[in-house]
Amino acid sequence: MRLVFMGPPGAGKGTQAKRLCDSLRIAHVSTGDMIRERIRAGTPVGLKVQPFVESGGLVPDPIMVDLVSERLAEPDCATGFLLDGFPRTQPQAESLTRSLAKLGRQLKAVIVLEVPDDEVVGRLSGRRTCTNPNCQANYHMHTIRPREVGKCDRCGHPLVQRPDDRPEAIRTRLENYHRQTEEVAKYYHDTGLVRRVVGVGSVDEVHQRIRDVIDATGR
What we know:
Blueprint: E1 2-6, H1 13-24, E2 27-30, H2 31-41, H3 44-55, H4 61-72, E3 81-84, H5 90-102, E4 109-114, H6 117-125, E5 127-130, E6 138-140, E7 159-160, H7 167-189, E8 194-198, H8 203-217
Parallel strand pairs: 1-3, 1-4, 2-3, 4-8
Antiparallel strand pairs: 5-6, 5-7
């Protein structure tokens, strides 16, 4: 099973992707995690992309294509994978098609989670993350509150709002999504791969909608 997850930032792609990958036993390929790991480690790639991430901009296509191509060639992706956060532009989608063709593979479906912009801003602007690199627990000021304001329940380290979760950065990310990533959905629509799923509701409700779509598509 080879899937692409699409949707605006804050649509719940990460949460749903991890749950799906566990149940389908496929690799979770999160470009967001890959980029953040490199930024935390201070690698050359991390230093290069950090300004784009903090401003809400898109990381340049060549960097993303190289990272994903290397990841998909790893052994755990041979039996299936879910791409979370890639492709975000049509050139990235075209590069992915070429990379998969070289590996003798094809996508099974492109799942698009649909969430209104106002809902996205509310979700993301309330997120807080633990500053302890060995913890990195996530909270939300409205739905998953820490017992003590500003402190992690697990380790006691301070909680911060990620730069890309500030309202102005969120709006920029949404503009980028609507301008460029929707073109990717159109690109895949012509191949009959796109499956649109309402992303508003409980985690269980959204998960069941996605599973229904995947089960209907077949493996």
